Amino acid sequence: MIPSLHNGVSALKSLTEGLQILGNNIANVNSLGYKAARANYSDNFYMHLNDAEAGADGDPSNNIQQHGTGVHVSSVSTDFNQGTHETTGLDLDLAIQGEALPNGGGFFEIVDPVSEEIFYTRAGAFESTKEGLVVTRDQYRYQLQGINGAMEIKLENDETLLARRIEEDGKVNVVVSKDDINGGSEDIIRNVGQLKLVNFQSPQYLRRAGNGFYSNGGPGQDLGGRLANFIPAAGSNGKVKQYTLELSNVDLTNQFASMISHQRSFQAGSRVITTSDMILSEAVNLKR
Asked: What is the pLDDT of residues 89-103, one digit of tens each?
């Protein structure tokens, strides 16, 4: 195989990976808390036929010959900027308002109650079970974590829930109606917990787990460098917005423009292969 043929093949393989990433971004344009990914391309290692050498007079030689061997996807990076917020009116729909803060202001921490595996997410669609546990609103039903463990909103026997209030700093309060000693009732506000946010020094090292979830590695691992501050609206952590969900941060305009660029690059790589094939064909036919 002549080198130009190999270069063309590497271009097609790498651009196919890039198109797969673009397609996944576009497919998740309406996914809650989804963060867009981007393929980063880099040139392959070079073949050095002649390197620069110092002659007798100390001047380097000018007969340098370095031939490239194509391209590859060096890494896939994630854009953790905040997505668009949408008001829903549901009291357990939560969003993190990080705006210009590093990494968009952090993540909600959720735990699989069966395997106790920990995940992090920006998709804040939660609901409460009859036991009072706050869980994700999907088939996984992972438990939202507070400062002191699983987030619970429990009522006493003589209380009737009127409203749930979650403040910007993560304090979770309930407004309840409670029977008084005179046979009537009174409305009171009671604190039931403190919501927890988690931020990372290097969120690019987090592993995508699907469903908008990220993993910080297996037991004993800390791939992203978890920070010690867990209080919302403090340090690099964003504020909690109730009655709101964060949508995908995918910009369709940029994605389609990038797709066109990938398509043209793919066509150029195909032309390199076609031209190389014609040259090989001519070389084979020289003897005829």
From this structure: 999 999 999 877 778
